[in-house]
Amino acid sequence: MNVSTSPKFKENVHGALRDESLQRALGRLKSGFQEKRSAAAAKMPEFEALRDQARDIKNHTLENLDHYLLKFEENVKANGGHVHWCADAAEAREVVAKICRDKNAKSVLKGKSMISEEIGLNDFLEKQDLKVVETDLGEYIIQLRHEPPSHIIAPAIHVHKEQVADSFRETHTGRDPNRSLVEPRELLDEAREVMREHFFAADIGITGANFLIAETGTSVIVTNEGNGDLTQTLSRVHIAIASLEKVVPTLEDASSILRVLARSATGQEMSSYTTFSTGPKRDGDLDGPEEYHVILLDNGRSNMLGTEFQDMLRCIRCAACMNHCPVYGAVGGHAYGWVYPGPMGSVLSPSLIGVDEAGHLPNASTFCGKCEEVCPMRIPLPKMMRHWREREFEKHLSPSSFRYGIKTWAFFASKPKLYRAVTGIASKVLGKMSGGKGKIAKLPLAGGWTDMRDLPAPEGKTFKELWAEKQKQQGGSK
Amino acid sequence: MTPSKPRVGLFVTCLVDMFRPTVGFSAVKLLEEAGCEVDVPMDQTCCGQPAYNSGDNESARKVARPLIDMFADYDYVVAPSGSCAGMIKKHFPELFANDPAMADKVKALSDKTFELVSFLTDVMKVDAVPASFEGKVTYHDSCSGLRELKVKEQPRKLLNSIKGLEISELSEPETCCGFGGTFCVKYPEISGKMVGDKTKDIKQTGAKTLLAGDMGCLMNMAGKLAREGSDVEVRHVAEVLADMTMAAPPIAGSNSKTGGE
To answer: Which Gene3D superfamilies does this entry report, sorted A to Z (chain A) (predicted)?
Structure first.
């Protein structure tokens, strides 16, 4: 199962900030994602209106989730497919394992799926003696490196091409050891050659789903490499694993949201491949799987319905929030310690693994608001992080020194005269401590501040003291 | 008889009160020059943001409640901070959402509360200030002002009205400086990295002065620049607009060769 290191967030951060290779990789976010998204949005006059529409579609769906899920199930069955309702990760893993057993499968191909990461599927299947191969290049790279993804759409964003070459030389044995693996094209060609063999030998193909369409019983995946198509059409059995909130009512709704998805994610108008899968191969179809299964995973999501976290279920996993987040940009995805990093993870992870486990994440935000600004589904991410902080405070999960500090501060701040006296003294003392230099380099109990930067010194008297003096001089009686 | 002047209650903010009174006096001067009558309720403390952003809504309400009454009688409430003005304007209504008895008062306060510079331009229709300043400045857009209150062009408009002042933009003026209230002491390493990226950006502009509209961000950036021994001087934008740069040395002092150390 997927163990989280979120409680060790601070240690993770400490390491990430000192990891030069990671820091160099994170530098790519700006040109790789931010500038492209902004250009794509600017080119489209109706982009803001589309965001409203996308939000409204999902809000409507979430208000009627049971209805649309049942409709989806009905239509999948009508097309000859199977639907499996799974309450949690263990149930979902077991369903997949059973399908594999029933089919006497030896090998499993994977299209990219964050749900698969969430339920720890690969490890589980490997323990059942199945050969599992990731077919998305980024996922393949991190699979070779035995790492989790550090980003939800660019899982290997933390890896450099030299490191990829090393992994390939180590894994792809039987090739010329002196071959050149310098250019991205060379790496890509080799990956493609290796992957072809896997595609033709696969028994089971597992993909995620960007959308489930209720009116047609269709699952939709969006990829740029075409690996998802091959995974699901060449395998004997296609299993799509998706969480409940991926459902939308109609084909038209999916198309509307697709218009904001790629633009927000990579700045593309559309991803290279958008693949609609509706049931198994029919008589007369040239290709397609013999069986089509959809796993509908809850794993904590239905608990979010009707709460202040329901809006989070609008998320379409475009990653715009993390691409633009200064905290993600500073520490990368692994520091967050569980499957979903960045702002969306800081809201979702506490819902799925508990706020006592993931409590750091909603706190590690400056509330700068950039994530909400770029979220195509207009999810109020900072507001929901604040709601998590409220829950933590209520449950006494925040550090006691911190709680004490806030309460003490509130005590003074709600007693104006006392507050005025105390701030007056503090201003004077701090002003003196600076020795006239205007700044203080080290201050007891304020290491959090002064380890990183000087503390600008107060001018000496508070504004209110000076204002009162001035009023007096002018004969005012305020 | 001249029409009566709008009565403005100045919400000084706790950081300006304690660390940078010059910003408060700059605000008073700008507001008076714009035709307002300014008053400072002496019992004001803080907007409650530290508690609110820490999930302690009870304490936040405790601090916010007296403020709502204190400013009830003014035509406008103005703060030299996008963050504190944003707290009153955008977050008070949420903070008291379950308290119907407060709804009208909170709504009234929210409607009449403004960040200083945008109040000058958008409400008082000021489009130039009679200040003097020589040289290149750069401007950081503080997050709350920018995203909650849409403060972006207003300070630039007034700064550009000053002869001799030239704005040299940051490559990422809208990226957070890493202050984030209690964030900067709860996660000092991330905050340190973010403000380090910010000071790098500041230095590459070639500007010798950094301006912004929020004391928290300014203290964070000034503290980092000082730690790095930079000669960039840091000031609240109101000090420059009010022509009060002579009233106090830059925030965190001055490292410049001509500075007064």
So the answer is: Alpha-helical ferredoxin, NagB/RpiA/CoA transferase-like
